[in-house]
Amino acid sequence: MLNPLCIISEVNPVNRIDQVFGELRASGSTALIPFITMGDPDIRTSVDIIKTLVQAGADMIELGVPYSDPLADGPVIQRASERALRHQISIVDCIQVAEDARNAGADVPFILFTYYNPVLQLGLDRFFELITSKGISGLIIPDLPIEEDEEMRGLAEQAGIHLIPLVAPTSHDRVKRIAAKARGFVYCVSSLGVTGVRSDFHAGIEEFLQSVREAASVPIAVGFGISSREQVQRFEGQADGVIVGSAIVRKIEEVLPLLADPGRREEGLQHIHDYVSALKG
């Protein structure tokens, strides 16, 4: 019997992430890739925020699965995860958001950002069945090292879904090893430590990005700490994509009272729209 994942991969061989990067390259543009925490403050609002991000110019979106021990995340995203988990948001709920948002008109690639434990608890077969059927294009699993990702990578490739690696400034040999296996794009960490808004980045960031680009056969995107149009512009000539997470999650946190008020909900969404639109320029 044929594996259903193989059938899906054959029917839709071109990943949406590859399509978008190809279109942007042809127009000389850089991808803006926002990150938001699913279920913050609730699932319905997450769908509305995703629609708002697309209207503001987002080219693809990272859907963050809330987790109780997010080792790579700073205090802003930790608080967002805590708010979401109060409503018992599960990884299944987060995956469903991709389909709900696309049905609502958000036609961009979705990348699921999750720690490995929720995937294991769900089970790999069930996990890939869900993300394939709901239209997830990519995966980022920050606590899955390259030395232990063989099974996950094989299943992802079989399903036509890109397992996107993170790479921080390290030895040239390790950068080459990570970049050689990359699919979709390489997520270049611009700042050492956890996520969070920063005024500056580590020394040698330009040389680091250049070394990753030379080693990679796929696009590169830079993230961790980016929060302003000026910072986005700084990286537009050096990377194919710019990822903004904590700054957008913080903006959502700021407008939570508006989002909770039916009479001012659209005002809250407009604040998010205006911020992301300014990042896009």
Automatic annotation (TrEMBL):
Complex and partners: Tetramer of two alpha and two beta chains.
Xref: Gene3D superfamilies: Aldolase class I
Keywords of the record: Amino-acid biosynthesis, Aromatic amino acid biosynthesis, Lyase, Tryptophan biosynthesis
The name this protein goes by in its record: Tryptophan synthase alpha chain
Enzyme Commission number: 4.2.1.20
InterPro entries in UniProt: Aldolase_TIM, RibuloseP-bd_barrel, Trp_synthase_alpha_AS, Trp_synthase_suA
Catalytic activity: (1S,2R)-1-C-(indol-3-yl)glycerol 3-phosphate + L-serine = D-glyceraldehyde 3-phosphate + L-tryptophan + H2O
Protein's pathway: Amino-acid biosynthesis; L-tryptophan biosynthesis; L-tryptophan from chorismate: step 5/5
Free-text function comment from the UniProt entry: The alpha subunit is responsible for the aldol cleavage of indoleglycerol phosphate to indole and glyceraldehyde 3-phosphate.
Organism: Paenibacillus sambharensis
Stored SUPFAM superfamilies: Ribulose-phoshate binding barrel (SSF51366)
UniProt entry tagged with the keyword Glycoprotein: no
A molecular function (GO) term: tryptophan synthase activity
Family to which this protein belongs: Belongs to the TrpA family.
Record gene name: trpA
Any one cellular-component term (Gene Ontology): cytosol
